[in-house]
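Task card 7
Instruction: Convert sequence to C-alpha cells.
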Amino acid sequence: MEPSPLLELARLSINYGGIQALQDIDLVIHRGEVVTLIGANGAGKTTTLRAISRIVAVRQGRILYDGRDITRKRAHEVVNLGIAHSPEGRRILARMTVLDNLELGAYTRRDRLGVKADIEKQFLTFPRLAERKSQQAGTLSGGEQQMLAIARALMSRPKLLLLDEPSLGLAPAIVREIFGIIQNLRTTGVTILLVEQNAILALQTADRGYVLEAGRIILSGNASELIEDDRVKQAYLG
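Output:
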C-alpha cells in the first residue's frame, strides 16, 4: 500500500477577477521528494504556490496536506502546520538585520532555545549569512538575499518548503551554490516544491515534475523522463 502523500491538490481552480489562473490542477507530492513545476511566465506556477500557502482564495477544488483539508485555512495556520514559502523576489525585510530576519521566520514558534539552535544551524548551512548577521539585509548581494530568504523559511521547521524562482537574477556560480544547498536540504528530510525558470536545472534537481501551460497541467512524470521529452525540450529547454 502506497503511503499517503504529504500534499495533494485535487481539481484546484483559481480566478483572478474574471481570469482563470488555474484550472482543475491535480498534483501530488510525497514525503522527501523534490518536485518541480515548470512552464512559461504567466502559466500559473506562482499562483499554485500562493494557493498552497493560502495567500490566494480557492474557487474550486481542495488542498490536502498531511492528511487534512487546508483549503479554507489562513496563511499563518498553514505555517504552523509545517508549510513554509520562500517567495519570488525574496521579499526580505531590507532595513532589518540578517539576524532579525531569521528570528522573524520563527514568529509562530515559542521554543526560544530551539529557535536559537536553528539560527546557528542556518549559519552553518549559509556561512555567508553568519559573517553578515548584523548587516541590514538590504545591503546583501542578490545571492546572499536569496540564501537569507531560504534560511528564513526554514526557521519555521517546515515539512514542506515552497521555493519560488530561487535562481532569478543571480549569476551562474551563485545559482549553482543555491541549488547545491537545495540538494543538501532534501537529505535533512524537507520535502520541496520548486518553481524555477531554469527548466534544465529544475529537472536535474527534482525527482518528478509537472508542466503547466495557461493554468493547466499538460504533462507530468519523472524528471529524468521529462528532460528527454521532445515537447519539453522544444518549449522549455532551448
